[in-house]
Amino acid sequence: MRCDRCGRDAVLFQRYSGMHLCSKHFKEDAERKIRRKIRKSRIGKGEKIALALSGGKDSSVAAYVLKNVFRDWKDIDLIAITIDEGIEGYRDEMIDGAKLLTKKLHIDHRIESFEDNFDYTIDEIACIKRDLGICSFCGVLRRKLLNAVAREEGATLLATGHNLDDEAQTVLMNILRGDVERLARFVPSKVQPGLIPRLKPLSEIPENEVILYANLEKLPIPHESCPYVHEAMRRDIRGMLNDLEERHPGTKHSLMGAFYKINESLKEKYVQGELNRCERCGEPCIGNLCQSCKLLDKIKREKD
Ligand code: SF4
Ligand SMILES: [Zn+2]
Ligand SMILES: [Zn+2]
User: Fold this and answer.
1) Gap between the Cα atoms of 191 and 198, Å rounded
2) Is 50 annotated as a binding residue?
3) Ligand 1 pocket: which residues have CB below 6 Å?
């Protein structure tokens, strides 16, 4: 197949747009969407962006494009933060990849571990807490640590590598669980003190295109996957959305488009209140104790 823009060999048939694209025009298309997303976040002079870099394909591509986008913006600082959850045989390889990439891209890199910050690794938590999805623990603790470290670094934005598939899965998962309030919080309507606003530069790029971009740019991406399975529901939704996208190209984009329209009304119904500070760790939270402190309490109780 030939590229619809220049006639060279195509590397991608973008079913949702009906376009065949060569390597050059595919990368241009992806970078245009990423720049548009970054522009929408109204980044100004003197900002410091902390990137959550796991070492996987999404955040590695995010590191690469952010570095390129901000190359000419002299006043923007970029730092990568990698969280070591303590998952033997998996995270070590990812961390090596993250180190390699940040060195290659000349991005400052900070690594923080669950063990140093919470006294437990995910492997230890998995041994203690066999009855609960380990990913919920991992996600809550990681988000807290990322926010705290980004704040400590003086970051004004926290960038993550979430792609279009991740976003569409989360929206659909909240709808299917009937959790409308959480859905309303998915795009925060105001900046909360202590909570670093998010930037998701890849949120309009489908997962298969992120993989293609990473391969074309020969980014060092490990192929190991985490030994703890993802939540069963997300896995099911992922399969369902991929099936729908295959049969009805553009489904994921339409779902997100509908969500952004509905979100305007959701924000009016579920007005975002002021957050408190966790009375134990000081992180922003609803109520007196943050989710992480509550989960760590559970772990301690179960262990004793
Ligand atoms: S798959 Fe689950 S346990 Fe593994 S890194 Fe992701 S959230 Fe953590
Ligand atoms: Zn082309
Ligand atoms: Zn807390």
Assistant:
1) 10
2) no
3) 85, 122, 134-135, 138-139, 226, 228, 230
| Residue with CA closest to ligand 1 atom 6 | 135
Q: Where are the domains of the chain?
A: 1-31, 32-303
Q: How far from 22 is each of 1, 35, 124, 159, 285, CA to CA, in Å?
A: 9, 20, 47, 28, 47
> 3-state SS string over 148-209?
HHHHHCCCCEEECCCCHHHHHHHHHHHHHCCCHHHHHHCCCCCCCCCCCCEECCCCCCCHHH
Residue from 54, 59, 83, 85 whose mutation best tests the ligand 1 pocket (most atoms within 8 A of CB)? 85
- pLDDT > 70: percent of the chain: 98
Q: Which CATH architecture has domain 32-303?
A: 3-Layer(aba) Sandwich (3.40)
pLDDT of 143 reads 96
Model pLDDT, residue 130: 63
- Ligand 1: nearest atom to the Cα of 139: 7
Known binding residue 293? Answer is yes
Q: What is the pLDDT of residues 77-129, one digit of tens each?
A: 999 999 999 999 888 889 999 999 999 999 999 999 999 999 999 999 988 87
Q: What is the mean pLDDT of residues 156-174?
A: 96
Please state, in angstroms and rounded to a whole number, the distance separating the CA atoms of residues 290 and 148.
13
